[in-house]
Design a protein that fits this description.
This protein has 155 residues and is mainly α. The protein has one domain. 48% of the residues lie in helices and 6% in strands. It is built from 5 helices and 2 strands; from the N terminus they run αααβααβ. Strands 1-2 form a two-stranded antiparallel ribbon. Helix 1 crosses helix 2 and helix 2 crosses helix 4. The longest helix is centred in the N-terminal third of the chain and has 30 residues. The radius of gyration is 17 Å and the shape is elongated. The relative contact order is 0.17.
Amino acid sequence: MTEANSWNADRPAVYPLAPLPASALEGVRRRRVFAILLDLILVSLLSFALWFVFGLLTLGLAWLLLPSFFPLVAFFYNGLTVSGANMATPGMKAMDLEMRLTDGARVPFINASVHAVLFYLSLYLFAPILLFSLFASDKRCLHDILAGVIVLRRA
């Protein structure tokens, strides 16, 4: 790859996607949909397991709190996995995706968690807003832009 086609994370970006190669965004939307489905399944299973264990430990009192487990687990699931070494949730990793800040740096925990909150708010309050990525040349959703991140194919 030449310098013009490579994405250098050390170089500050005037326009964040100018140095990105086209292959970094190829098939990202389709892969993100499948990654989200995998992650929703994993978060649901993890939430249920924690709810069940806490219910047993509290003699059933925690079973009244089921609705609050999913958002809490999703917040930490996304924050810890995206800010971790793989820079992706397990679903994103399975679909060969990673998340970075628009300047190429690793995503800190707070950005990854805010990204998850914005995604779930978009999904549950006004799902058509997710169609924004169809009109964006960089294939970013509105919650990606607000969180300052971009989802790319792994190099």
